[in-house]
Write a structure and sequence with these properties.
The chain is α+β, with helices and mostly antiparallel strands. It has five helices and ten strands; from the N terminus they run βαβββαβββααβββα. The protein has a single domain, classed as Roll (Pnp Oxidase, Chain A), CATH 2.30.110. The relative contact order is 0.20.
Amino acid sequence: MTYQPTERTTLRRLPERAHYDPETVHSILDEGFICHIGFVVDGQPYSLPTGYARIGETLYLHGSTGSRLGLRPGMDVCVTVTLLDGIVLARSAFHHSFQYRSVMVLGRTRLVTDSGEKDAALTALVEHFMPGRSADARPGSGREQAATAVLALPLEEVSAKVRTGDPKDDDEDYELPVWAGILPLALTPGEPVPDSRLDPTIAMPSYVKDWKR
C-alpha cells in the first residue's frame, strides 16, 4: 500500500525527497508530539499547534469545543508534523539547511460523536506521548469530555518529505576552506521535576523515569 500522490501532495521542489509509503508517514507521526493545523475561517487563515494521536489510518486532533477549530467540524484542513534532526552547514550561505522529516495531511475533519471512539482517541492522545500514563491518570469527567472536541482526519491525501545526507554545495565551492557538515540534534528528557504539591510518599512511575523518545 502507498498513499497515492495528488495534485496537492505531489512535491514540486526536490521531489526526490518525497515519500508516500505508510511506513515512513506513520513513523514520523508516531515520533512527533505537536502538529500544526492550518485552516481558513471567513477568509482569514489560521495555523494552530496542538497534540494529536494516530490510530491506524486516522489522525485524531483535539481542542476546546469553543475554539475556532472545535466550533467548525467538517472544515478542510492542512495538518503538518515536522521532526528536526540536525543543522546542515554548507560552504555557501545559500545551501545551509536542516535535516528533517515531515508529513503533510490534507482532508476534511469529522467531529467524533461516538463515545467509544472519543474515549479511545483521548486515551491514545495521552498514550502517544507517555505510554502507560492513562492507567494512572483520572479519566475525563462528563464536563471535561463535553468541553473537549475530538476531530478525526483520515490519512488519505498524505505526503512525507525527508532530508538526509551531506550538504549540497555548488561544485566550485567544494574547494573553499570552510568547514561543512551536519550538527545532529535530538530531543532528550531531562531530570523529572515533581509537582510542588505532590505527596512525597508517591513514587515516580517507571514510565516517567525510563521515558525514551
